[in-house]
Amino acid sequence: MSNLFYQAQGRKPTLDQSRGVYMWDQDGKRYLDGSSGAMVCNIGHSNENVLTAMRRQMEKSTFGYRLHFETEASEHLATKLANLMPEGLNKVFFVSGGSEAVETGLKLARQYAVTTGQGSRWKVISRAPGYHGCSLGALAVTGYAPLTAPFEPMMRQMPKIPAPRAYLDGLDADDPATGLHYADMLEQKILAEGPDSVLAFLVEPVGGASTGALVPPRGYMERIREICTRHGVLLIMDEVMTGAGRTGKFLGSDHWLARPDIVVMSKGLGAGYMPLGAMIADDRLVAPVLDQGGFAHGFTYAGNPLACAAGLAVVNEIEMQGLCANAAEQGDRLLARLNGLMQKYELIGDVRGKGLLTAFEFMADRNSKAPLPAGLNAHQRFVDIAYAKGLIVYSRRTRDGTHGDHILVCPPLIVSDAHMDEIVEGLDASLAQFSHEIY
Ligand code: PMP
Fold first, then answer.
1. ipTM of this model?
2. What does the UniProt keyword field contain (predicted)?
């Protein structure tokens, strides 16, 4: 009997070792990590350079409280990140995870508004489906009813607009009119709420767990930027999943001309070596807050040297190994091969993604886009089949959490052609079994 209680799906094998793209359980069974944990382990497991950097830091000091000491590791990582951000985003606040990073971004936005005479602005518009974390503030901006409903009214519900899902609405995502159609929903929402009450728009550049690697339609992001600027609304990019090279560029939002005011990152930054997140803000937002007493915020472990030393080594690996370019290249290959599987398996209704944030979605009928019945629990069954074959993939129910199953295939960015063959063979064999079992 385990004393842990988060294993909703029953007991799992016990992890023994992880190296590169592989993991082994205590019975010696090998798994290919086709989901990088939960899109975390971007540079693969047990990278020797990161371990060396961590060992060095551990021998010097594992903790220095940020109000007592500056540390070299946090200074260097902050500088590194600022250099990788769009111009002007050069103020970094470290945290220990994605939800903390989102909370930090929301609080900085609010404190900026208060200190600059815009205290009426507090509403954060976000999207449904959307996922931004499990703390109460992050949940308030999460558009995913099964996660939010049990906790009402403990958080203040924020306004939502639909996430663009052109494939479900029968629209062409490559037609710029589609991007404008969805982006203009933001402007309508701002006007309906009252522009003076709207603080920020929070968006995942490419949908992660929420919409399953769904890429925004052409023109969407640029128009969103324009609308935010027009109404004095801050644009916050949730790069928790898309950041650190996952989509083929360092930031997911680097794919578009839509400069964020605030970026929040986590998963791939600590890359499974240490819990680490960051909020990176435009200097223009931070300056007035610092001028008027400072940011009323901070977690105990923020900026601890061990996490920052790991993060710095991770970002160095991303650069040295050219992992953004590899993610772009292997991602294109994976998409093409998933499209091949879609030809073969009727149950796959859609394939999508950017870089190595890729997914396919099961449908009962491709024409009507009807999902598989929720009672089939198809996504979990597929994950279990693949797992038994030694391939780990990540799955979620989309379509507002009630039905619609998608499978995210997001291996570490270090994957080679041979790994990719193994992933596709594992998916093929799992799909064959799944198609057989589901009917
Ligand atoms: N934002 C996004 C886009 C995420 O994908 C996640 C985690 N899946 C979070 C925020 C929350 O991150 P964490 O679980 O590290 O708190």
1. 0.99
2. Aminotransferase, Plasmid, Pyridoxal phosphate, Transferase
